[in-house]
Amino acid sequence: MPFSLQSLLSGFTLPDLPAALLCMVLVALMIRAGVMDHPVHRSSHTRPIPKGGGIGIIGAFLLCLPPALYLTHQSFFTGPILGLIGGVVLLATVSWLDDLYSFPARYKLAAQFVAAALAAFGSGASLPLTVLFVLGAVFITNALNFIDGINGLASGVMALSALFLAASGIQPVVFVLFAICLLVFLPWNFPKARIFMGDVGSQSGALIIAWGAMQPHPLAGTLTLALLSGVLWDVLFTLARRARAGDHLAQAHRGHLYQLAVRSGMPMPLVTVIYWGFVLWGAIACIAGQPWETGLLVLLPQLCWTGYVCTRAKARVQDHW
């Protein structure tokens, strides 16, 4: 079995409690700060909502990770951990400044590549594998950012993914702490949003999840991809469909599968829960053992979901998608 309750429990440490409290305090402060996300034509919300909840998630994670590692007799000063922290700090800083001032896309993409390279630091992997990880991490970072368009979807997917990574024995202390910060934030955002994560949460959090794929564990890469299969398929299918239609790929839109599902009349909370279900199914698929078997198992529900959503959209969505 790839998952173990003992592995999951080994990730719980005393600093998890102050991390939860700190996350709540920071999220409440960001609500009071009133940095608003105003709805535009592609938004799923219809009124201004505070953003920056990711500062609570990432801030609590970064501040409580050193004592959590110390109490489990793990060194904070290792290449993988320092690389992760450096990448997350860089990406969180750039993402928050972008939320405030809106940088050109090329600057944000450059920051993502540098952050991913930092996260790969000290992994001991060969150069080709490191390059592959950086490219994959950048794609995952953007995919989870794109998917963070309805309440609880991205944060719930990342929380469940972190718990399964911890249960598989992949850096349990890191991923249990991260999952706790996400789960503390989730009630503020789902089913009704009092605050959004913003890019600080979606991009920096995505980098943390992607970092799990680089760890020296036989299931690390396969498990990470399986857990994120719903998100990755949605983004890949949407890019392919829009490219085939001749749409500008860099242009903002509302054509993702999860957006089409909501626009066709499906309740937003139901769509979010379905994507959480894809994470659970990805974990179950990994029990199959062989990567090709896991791939086939995770592909089947994605094809069914795609066919169902596109059929609904053709019948019920009148404007361009």
UniProtKB/TrEMBL annotation:
Domain of life: Bacteria
InterPro entries to which the protein is assigned, alphabetical: Glycosyl_transferase_4
Transmembrane segments: 12-31, 52-71, 77-97, 109-140, 160-188, 219-240, 273-292
Primary localisation category: membrane
Membrane-topology descriptor: Multi-pass membrane protein
Cellular localization per UniProt: Cell membrane
This protein's UniProt keywords: Cell membrane, Glycosyltransferase, Membrane, Transferase, Transmembrane, Transmembrane helix
GO molecular function: glycosyltransferase activity
Protein name: Undecaprenyl-phosphate alpha N-acetylglucosaminyltransferase
Species of origin: Gluconobacter thailandicus NBRC 3257
